[in-house]
Design a protein that fits this description.
Blueprint lengths: L1 E4 L14 E4 L2 E7 L11 H18 L7 E8 L5 H12 L5 E6 L10 E8 L2
């Protein structure tokens, strides 16, 4: 069974998508950005803090933590802030880092957004 989910704390999606889709005990989370937050236009690490906080809210709503992360895909517009980004990720992951991909892209949907993270979490 497929369940499509939105989370009130994140506001409604602005396009034809949902925040996440649950299937076979895995939650597939759409790409999260800091768009619309105080961190929009800020440093990559500031934006990552907002994104990971939102991901933690999603995990909490599903009664899990970020220790349940299976995989993250991280899209960044530049690599200059990579050391700071890695420090933020390590702090949020703790002793449970997920499988991960990091891709540099030419741009995201807004020039004020420098990072987008999508994730898969194990549920239950």
């Amino acid at each position: 069974m497929i369940k499509r989910k939105n989370y009130g704390a994140l506001g409604l999606p602005v396009g034809p998508y949902v925040h996440a889709v649950e299937h076979n005990g895995v939650l597939h989370v759409s790409g999260l950005t800091a768009f619309g937050s105080a961190a929009q236009g800020g440093s990559m690490s500031e934006q990552a803090e907002v994104i990971l906080s939102n991901l933690e809210q999603i995990a909490s709503a599903e009664s899990v933590t970020l220790a349940s992360l299976l995989k993250v895909s991280i899209f960044v517009t530049h690599l200059a802030e990579l050391p700071e980004l890695r420090a933020v990720l390590a702090r949020h992951y703790g002793d449970n880092p997920p499988a991960s991909s990091l891709l540099q892209v030419a741009g995201l949907f807004s020039p004020e957004v420098s990072i987008e993270i999508e994730a898969q979490l194990a549920l239950g």
